[in-house]
């Protein structure tokens, strides 16, 4: 769905750049170049005279126009194929989206405007929500601004969302301490001045999330911060 | 009266003819503090003061030892000039906070009701009138626990996001302010990703 801020948004244009297969009759590449498409793209068409339907990879914004004029059919792109969908259904958080396509979600939205695929819509929906939650968790442990393994797996849309989350999580309030609190056992001296981010003593060293369902093995009685 | 000193705030850049960016959707810390200091608080004057007529209202007369309800900004002003002392709000005593922490822990997906400006008011009162507060350490611990538990619940709420409707009761203004850009951005993206479903509404 287009919104007002999309009209001039460069990310919106770039999302449509993704290559998609179009199966159609061979077309005249010179006509494409005359239309204003770059030579590199125009040469993807070849001028063979046979009537066979050939599949070609062209940018999405060109492909859409072809399809609307009835010159070909859209093929399901590989990045939304069965293996990727299964991976996203199984564990959406750890799928490396950047190697698929740096604009995975944005292109997915554009693609779904043209093609009806409720299964893909649901997969994208759920995986985005789970990954947003995982980003919040990831930022909680002071990873703001660092290029971690987790961040390298995110696509463009998520990185923009992450920058907003980073700014917000750095607000200090309640007597000067921020949200980035390490979980795990804090000994009572750590909580003395509640302004300190305390690390656990020979405990989980903050690896367990606050409120995680896993039991902390090294449970100290003096102020373990798990929810249970 | 600037209470938030040296705290980096997101820069609000406004260009002409542009839809406001997500950073502008949230309040700056100082703006939230300004709004929070309008809540009423109990004040006990130590010296007599006549009626104070201001544009926003008339306050007074202050005759000790009668306690009155005044806005927090006025109470802080009078406190700094040694005209009285600010009494701790009922929800901020050590017992009441301990009870709130218990309530938060009991219910999983629900937030317990607490003053909508609890974070800001507690911060201001601890900063300015810290020495007058009894059981300060316990109060600070309870506040920290409360903050952690509520933040944890909010993070769990992110998993149940959908682009159309979100309702949560008893969130304080500061918490809403913190989570607003995350939720707004996520909802916008979900609407873009899933156009068919959103146009079905």
Main CATH class of the domain at 29-40 and 89-196 in chain B: Mainly Alpha
Q: From the alpha-carbon coordinates, what is the Rg of chain B to the nearest angstrom?
A: 21 Å
- Strand arrangement within the widest β-sheet of chain A reads 2-1-3
- The CATH topology of the domain at 29-40 and 89-196 in chain B is given as Methane Monooxygenase Hydroxylase, Chain G, domain 1
Q: What would the average pLDDT of chain A be, to the nearest integer?
A: 66
Strand order of the largest sheet of chain B: 4-1-5
Reading the helices and strands of chain B in chain order gives HEEEEHEHHHHH
Keywords (chain A): DNA replication, Nucleus
Main location (chain A): nucleus
Family (chain A): Belongs to the GINS3/PSF3 family.
Organism (chain A): Paraglomus occultum
Describe what you observe in this structure:
The complex is a heterodimer of chains A (228) and B (201). Chain A is mainly alpha-helical. Chain A contains nine helices and three strands; from the N terminus they run H-E-H-H-E-H-E-H-H-H-H-H. Chain B contains seven helices and five strands. Chain B is mainly alpha-helical and 201 residues long. Chain B starts with 28 loop residues before the first helix and ends with a helix. The model of chain B has no long low-confidence stretch (mean pLDDT 81). A three-stranded antiparallel beta sheet of chain B has the order 4-1-5. Chain B has a two-stranded antiparallel ribbon with strand order 2-3. The chains are: A mainly alpha (228), B mainly alpha (201).
